[in-house]
Amino acid sequence: MRRRPETRPVPGENQHRINHQIRIPQIRVIGPDGDQLGIMSPDEARAIAEEHELDLVEVAPKAKPPVCRIMDFGKFRYELSKKAAASKAARVDLKTLRLRPKTDDHDIETLTRKARGFLEKGDRVRFVMRMRGREQSHCDLWIKKLGEVMVSLSDIATVVQTPRLEGRMITATLEPSSGSGSAPSGGGGGSNNA
Fold first, then answer.
1. What mean pLDDT do residues 121-136 have?
2. What share of the chain is helix, strand, coil (3-state, %, to 5)?
């Protein structure tokens, strides 16, 4: 006796039951044109779907009774994957760059170049400067130093959050600007000897 092939959905996919996988006694059916056909058994709905050469797809399993729609399942899956890809592409990431008050000027230039690259790709950038011990007594100096970094990126970025003290760290956030960015009031340079 031959075994029937497995019809289980692939794990990780949106798991919609279709055709003979729907075993509930009563379902609410929506036709291929979007009009409600009423509550009926899955066998009756499958017969209507076969007349239109389409599939019966469960779209709202938690509703009472569950809602099924007559549609082309292949096209439905394609549309879902297209929406998922579009939402993934539209997502803006927040990149965090960490530095310390004693970070050397050359290393700050490297971090600035890295931030510029992230901003050009369309990502937001958050600078986090962690302080220890006596470094906390010179917060205004470190805020000014981070402000200088923000000014150097003002040609391609807009300031979302100016440098400010949050506990033992100073944070600042930039996002890509469509035109000319607004520069924070950074002020003059300060040495990084602490």
1. 85
2. 35, 25, 40
For residues 52 and 107, membership in a common domain is answered with no
Contact 103, 144 (CB under 8 A): no
Please write the tens of the pLDDT for every residue from 145-185: 888 888 888 888 888 888 888 888 888 888 888 754 333 44
Domain containing residue 54: CATH number: 3.10.20.80
The answer to whether 53 touches 71, Cβ cutoff 8 Å, is no
The length of the chain in residues reads 194
Instruction: Give the strands of the sheet with 55-60, arranged side by side.
Output: 36-40, 27-30, 67-71, 55-60
Q: Which are the contacts of 53, defined by CB distance < 8 A and separation ≥ 6?
A: none
- Check: CB of residue 185 under 8 Å from CB of residue 147: yes
6 is a domain residue: no
Whole-prediction pTM: 0.47
Tell me the one-letter amino acid at 101.
Answer: P
